[in-house]
Amino acid sequence: TQLLEQSPQFLSIQEGENLTVYCNSSSVFSSLQWYRQEPGEGPVLLVTVVTGGEVKKLKRLTFQFGDARKDSSLHITAAQPGDTGLYLCAGNKAAGNKLTFGGGTRVLVKP
Amino acid sequence: GAVVSQHPSRVICKSGTSVKIECRSLDFQATTMFWYRQFPKQSLMLMATSNEGSKATYEQGVEKDKFLINHASLTLSTLTVTSAHPEDSSFYICSARISGDLNQPQHFGDGTRLSIL
User: Fold this and answer.
1) Cα gap A9→A32, rounded to integer Å
2) Are B103 and B32 in contact (CB under 8 A)?
3) What torsion, rounded to 10 degrees, do the Cα atoms B83, B88, B89, B94 define?
4) pLDDT reading at A95 higher than 70
5) What is the pLDDT of residues A44-55, one digit of tens each?
6) Contact at CB, B93 and A104, closer than 8 angstroms
7) B66-84, pLDDT tens digit by residue?
8) Where are the beta strands (DSSP E) in A18-84?
9) What are the residues of chain B with a beta carbon less than 8 Å away from any beta carbon of chain A?
10) Using the 8-state DSSP alphabet, how is residue A98 labeled?
């Protein structure tokens, strides 16, 4: 059982549709990061959220950190084929600690 | 931005060979680096935390004599897979965090694909 559960595991949508990826835990995290990874490459940091209830926007991507800092979501509006990739959430239980990764959500946006 | 370089990007070698992977922080100092392993279509699994000037901390189930880690400077950590076998074939990724700020996120290298024949 993973400390961070991501859902869904796989998502296939048409270009222009919206999607939401969830990252849930029973543990509290001091911060949580979202990464996107493409095949054969390392993860690239998208955002870090640290305050309960925080909402951050990055163009068409909206990230939310739950009030209790146990969960987070990533919402993509009007998805494009370039959004295709493996989305990973990762949390720090305390500043400076090792990251715990979720299982990942594989997103495919078809043109 | 913070850049982490991994070398080599791909290794193919025979069973029994030892393979060394380098992880460098190019434009910042990193007291702590991390080594991950990723199997196809799976997430990253932390193998060990590499601390500059001291012994690495290994996760449960990771053999420290099999995966030797050396972090001799603030910009370089190495992972050596000793006497590699086909089951060691995987994608190995390192990350580094900027020294002095525990709230900084980790920055990842581009990974090393290891294939043992």
Assistant:
1) 19
2) no
3) -100
4) no
5) 999 999 999 999
6) no
7) 999 999 888 999 999 999 9
8) 19-24, 31-37, 44-49, 55-58, 61-65, 71-76
9) 4, 6, 32, 34, 41-46, 49, 91, 93, 95, 97, 102-103, 105-111, 113
10) P
